[in-house]
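Appendix B, Record 12. Input sequence as logged:
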Amino acid sequence: MKQGILIYQAPPMLGRNVMVDNYAFMNFSFMGIGKGKKFLEKLQMELVKLDYPVTVVKDDTEANLEDIIARQYDFIICVPGLQKKLLSKDKLPQVFHIDSQDYYSSSISKTITNIKNNVL
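Logged structural output:
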């Protein structure tokens, strides 16, 4: 079984409010609040429906790359805005970036295609 992680917040930096970053996984959806949860749930359901041997989990490390590398995920999915904030390291697995339109509309087709073509 392949495992992936959805990174939805920027790596830790001085002065950042962690509570603001957790709005992506609130139980309601309004102006970007709750979009991460909706996207992840839709992606997980589609992976089960397609019977792919893949699981994707929510990042609980606050984008701590050392912890993510230590957990040995097979791939990383990043929400919009993290293209330049997630510094590339040699030991990172395959990284997929979601564009804004797909993320905010919870369109998972490109992500499913990336998993099918690059992970399986």
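The mean pLDDT is 79.
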